[in-house]
Specification:
It is a single chain. It contains one helix and twelve strands, in the order βββαβββββββββ. By secondary structure, it is an all-beta fold. It has one domain: Lipocalin, CATH 2.40.128.90. Strands 1, 2, 3, 4, 5, 6, 7, 8, 9, 10, 11 and 12 form a twelve-stranded antiparallel sheet that branches. The relative contact order is 0.22. Keywords: Signal.
């Protein structure tokens, strides 16, 4: 039950890609006015993982990927935002992605899928919604930048399908071939805690390094994510080129056994 799929999803997840620099550095004045930021972004990660399906008479661990974004992606939406006042901040992130069918392989099987000698044509599809909500407080502020302590909740709603065409090997009884379709859903709720912030590269602060790290648990046995890169700030707009990693680890008979996203992200943050 462990084979890792390389393609169950991918692309997007605002989750944090822009949070470290959504607003200007904390002013340090509790009476300061609210600052707001909205950041559309594009994240193109490599995805790997394993989905566990319940099939007639047993189960199947399906691994696939990576998905081809141009051929398999049907729809994607990514957006995040932040509000900050003094040392305190709140942030939100939302993503939706939908991939069509993709050639896959079944690693661990039982029941209707038969033995290892059974010939199988396997396809999987994946759709997911990610929503993250959190808050933070600045705990370190220096000339070089700042660090926020953060905590929040991460939701991942997953729908996966498994389509299998089974062909019997030579010598098998007549009528042994069959086709079937399985669709399953899982709602994952995880709490998380971590740090985020920025370190300036230039004296005027226009160039800086955003960073983010969190760990969590809940429906998943364990989840974590990390991000860093380089960004350029103007008065009203920030531009960032980042690298982000996000992972979920399930257990038991959960649909999502493992799910990993890693790759570059391009962010444009509008501040007001």
């Amino acid at each position: 039950m462990t084979r890792r799929s390389k393609g169950i999803a991918a692309l997007t997840m605002a989750a944090i890609s822009g949070w470290p620099f959504a607003a200007d550095p904390p002013p340090g004045d509790a009476s300061a006015q609210w600052q707001f930021a909205v950041a559309p972004y594009l994240w193109l990660p490599t995805v790997s993982g394993t989905l566990r399906f319940t099939v007639p008479g047993g189960g199947a661990d399906a691994s696939s990927g990576p998905y081809n974004y141009l051929q398999n992606l049907r729809f994607a939406f990514m957006l995040q935002g932040e509000a900050r006042k003094g040392d305190w901040s709140v942030f939100a992130d939302s993503i939706y992605l939908n991939f069509g069918r993709h050639e896959s392989s079944v690693n661990s099987t039982s029941g209707v899928l038969g033995t290892r000698e059974t010939q199988q044509d396997v396809q999987t599809s994946f759709a997911g919604t990610l929503v993250q909500l959190g808050g933070g407080r600045t705990v370190v502020r220096q000339e070089w930048g700042y660090i926020d302590a953060i905590a929040g909740m991460r939701y991942l709603g997953v729908k996966g399908t498994l389509d299998v065409a089974i062909g019997a090997t030579a010598g098998a009884r007549p009528g042994a071939s069959s086709n079937f379709h399985v669709g399953q859903m899982q709602n994952i709720f995880n709490g998380f805690a971590g740090v985020r912030g920025r370190a300036t590269i230039t004296q005027d602060g226009t160039w800086y390094v955003p960073f983010y790290l969190d760990v969590g648990t809940g429906t998943s046995k364990f989840t974590w994510q990390a991000l860093t890169g380089v960004a350029y700030a103007t008065k009203r707009v920030d531009f960032g080129l980042l690298y982000r990693y996000l992972a979920f680890y399930g257990s038991g008979d959960q649909l999502v056994q493992t799910l990993r996203f890693s790759g570059p992200s391009v962010n444009v943050t509008f501040k007001f």
